Amino acid sequence: MCPSPQPAPGWPLPLPKVEHYIFPGSRLETAVASPVILRVDPKGYYLYWTYQSKEMEFLDITSIRDTRFGKFAKIPKSQKLRDVFNMDFPDNHFLLKTLTVVSGPDMVDLTFHNFVSYKENVGKDWAEDVLALAKHPLTTNAPRSTFLDKILVKLKMQLTPEGKIPVKNVCHLAKGKVSSSPPAAHSPNSHSHERTTWLRMMESGTV
Known about the structure:
The protein has six helices and seven strands. The chain is of the alpha+beta class. Strand 6 and strand 7 (about 110-115) form a beta hairpin.
């Protein structure tokens, strides 16, 4: 019998720590500032923001390529937004409130998500902690079970007023994840296995 391989020094790595704080502020569009609350879910899977209408947008932590704050963050070019934040005044501290999250499938096709907080220096902590999550080895080398857990976490964060998971959300996620999970989980020949696991979890009431 071959001896069991010994774990590398320092393994297992500690799980990424998710700080429990929120980022109340605004998301900067091309020429519009929309009030939002920015959060990270407790397991560190998603960076997401909630609008005043309760609509939510999600950004997978694994898609984040960079975070920027202060003078390195992107600032609005629209004169309308510059006027809203008094950016042309000499004593303005707008840069101390900024946060830019850069995401994309690679380092070429990038999207810049720009936020501004109500308080100064909040973006610094967010930029450092979110990037630490995105670059953590356990984030990019997760086990297969993590991919299913990420689906469940996202579903549970989008409940109806009655506390139920909308069927349309289940269908939307299952449609894409059932076919894409096996390759992403390094298991190219396990389509039926992944589908069976997903259905069993739903039938057992895990969702």
